[in-house]
Design goal:
44% strand, 4-stranded antiparallel beta sheet, Beta-galactosidase, Chain A, domain 5, mainly beta
Length: 211
């Protein structure tokens, strides 16, 4: 897939495809260990509004991508005219430690309030191989903090997400409220992303194999 943005700090190198989705995830050396493999194994983003669900790579969205001036920070705007919704991604790799960050803003373009669900999916193939098994598990922490851990051998990646409620005196942070993990490419399983399309994730906590 073509890359519309490349973000890097020299150790962690992220490639975003034409849909603003992570399709290259190199660590610790650029061009050597790609933990995503691109092609059809990119990390998906989907949105559900009422009875309608749409993945960003579905062909239903229009995209624009640009870099911030004098900074290795990208901005991707995705608009779905039929759903009347706009998603803006601000993406970066931290310069002083190996973290990829995304700020996601969802804007309702309709003239009435609606409930929107955002689904973030990861499809790691750690150490550039989907023939050998990875492990993925849900990690609940104190204070209702949560994360998803992907690991194999000496490589481990932790994923988390928070919703920010902007308040005058102090912002309120709320961790993601649904999760699931699963297999893909074996036992006729497409991947845990399919579970998102009805808006309710099954809550599976751990899986080992092609995850």
């Amino acid at each position: 897939m073509a890359k519309t943005a490349i973000l890097s700090n020299g150790n962690l190198n992220i490639g975003l495809n034409e849909f603003g989705l992570v399709s290259d995830f190199y660590f610790p050396d650029n061009g050597y260990e790609n933990h995503t493999l691109g092609r059809d194994l990119f990390h998906r983003v989907g949105i559900k509004i009422g009875n309608n669900f749409s993945w960003l790579h579905s062909g239903e969205w229009q995209f624009s991508v640009e870099y911030f001036e004098n900074a290795l920070i990208s901005k991707t705007e995705a608009i779905n005219q039929e759903l009347q919704i706009k998603i803006t991604f601000t993406d970066f790799v931290a310069s002083d430690f190996d973290v990829f960050g995304r700020k996601i803003q969802v804007q309702n373009l309709a003239n009435y309030p609606r409930e929107v669900q955002l689904f973030l999916h990861q499809n790691f193939t750690i150490n550039s191989s989907f023939h050998l098994a990875d492990t993925v598990q849900f990690l609940p922490f104190e204070n209702n903090e949560k994360a998803i851990l992907h690991y194999r051998g000496k490589r481990a990646f932790i994923i988390s997400a928070q919703r920010v409620f902007e308040k005058p005196l102090q912002n309120i942070f709320e961790d993601f409220n649904q999760h699931t993990v699963g297999l893909f490419g074996i036992e006729n399983k497409l991947g845990s992303w399919v579970d998102a399309e009805d808006g309710i994730l099954s809550g599976s906590n751990v899986e080992h194999g092609q995850t």
